[in-house]
Amino acid sequence: ICVEVEENKIASMVAGYTDNLMDGMAYISIVATHCKAQGRGLASNCIKRFIDVCREKEISAVHLYTDRSNEIAKTMYRKIGFVKYEPEFEARPNDIHLIYRIEME
């Protein structure tokens, strides 16, 4: 879990899995930002910290799902570097599946 805290309250958070990997990839299950904190890059910061944790654990990629109609989320994920992911079997065909490939330093 990666969080951004403002005034002793969670303003934004990302929760995911870095131990129970699917195809060797970490999975972000929740990205949430309080409505009063949206639009300031807090969710992006949390996602980038989650990616850093994955890099430290030598995980090769992070994947997530988002609603096809959520243009704001899709734009944010693309800016970070996520791209569309199309595995052979798609568990959630009504959502968009995105992946971020981690380059090891």
Structure report:
By secondary structure, the protein is α+β, with helices and mostly antiparallel strands. Helix content is 24%, strand content 42%. It contains 2 helices and 6 strands. Strand 2 and strand 3 form a beta hairpin.
Can you tag this structure with a few keywords?
6-stranded mixed sheet; 105 residues; 24% helix; 6 strands; alpha+beta
Note the topology:
Elements: E1 2-6, E2 9-22, E3 25-33, H1 42-56, E4 61-67, H2 71-80, E5 83-84, E6 95-101
- Percent range for β-strand residues: 35-45%
The largest sheet, given as strand count, sense and whether it forms a barrel, is: 6 strands, mixed
Structural class: alpha+beta
Mean pLDDT: 90
Gyration radius from CA atoms, angstroms: 14 Å
Fraction of residues in helix: 10-25%
Oligomer: single chain
Uncertain ranges:
none
- Count of individual helical segments: 2
Shape: globular
The strand line-up of the biggest sheet is: 1-2-3-4-6-5
How many individual β-strands?
Answer: 6
| Element-level helix/strand string | EEEHEHEE
Straight-line distance between termini:
23 Å
Please summarize what this structure is.
The protein has helices spanning 42-56, 71-80; strands at residues 2-6, 9-22, 25-33, 61-67, 83-84, 95-101. It has 105 residues and is of the alpha+beta class.
